[in-house]
Amino acid sequence: MPSAAISEMKIPYNSGFHYSNYLLFNHGGTRILHGSRDGTILVWDFSPRVLIVIPKHDVSLVGDWARLLNDQTIVSGTSKESYTFCDNIPRISIIGCCAASQGPKGLDFTYPVTVFTAQRWEIILRDANRWQGDPCVHNETHNRVAYISGESIFVDQKSSNTRVAGLDVGSKPHDSISLSPGEESISFRLPNSNDTFLWNIDTQTVYWLHKSSSAGRFYGRVWSPDGHFIAIQRYSHFTLWDTRTGALVSILDFGGDFPFWGRLRFSPDGRYLAATGGGRIRLWDIKIALQRGPYRPPCAVKFQRR
Q1: Among the four 47, 87, 131, 165, which has the fewest Cβ within 10 Å?
Q2: 195 lies in which domain range?
């Protein structure tokens, strides 16, 4: 039986839940930030089971990502380097929001609110190097780079620009190849296929992460922070795979339709997996999911090495 979620929170209907811009955990993994395309930000605090709704301030500044600074101030950013801030989150009552953009001498603030003191601005600005740009990729320090050339996937060492490994898959792979955080594995797909493959670079083994049901269309994937697990997003469930063995270790049921505009995210410590779609946010405990299974042995396939 698919693993049941340990918790669920309904998203208010008027918060644009049909289109999720992002789904992120705070650094401690105790809160989830959800951003809708209408600019609404939701903060789900697990401990008191409280959902804080921060209404849109300016729809033209809808964020692509968000970060909770010091568990007190939300900064939400866009690809155009514009930012919005909301302060005083722990007290539930939002006492002020403002917006800013990147100027020639730093951040230029607009829509200021008087409750933001000079000291608060100073704290936000001092922290700027940690959050400017998408926080999901801003601090990546990969030593390897993966790329497609013809019908092959290659992995090079950045520092020496030398070839680490190559794999001929027989046809041009889908361009959505993904390198794991630990740089040991690559997830890839073949054209016109919903199936996913996992290439363990160090052992030169390829596993077929085959679909587990008739509704097996591929919608997305996410790695655990240590790269030991990968979750494959299908239409109404997720398959969880152990990247070290290639085995299916759990199926997480979303409990109904999971539209393609949903989002999927591991907590920073890898303990939880959260997903959003259809007006809900669901949360799973990975340890419990692994205990419940189901487990299926790995299916290794042969591709030609390059």
Answers
A1: 47
A2: 144-305
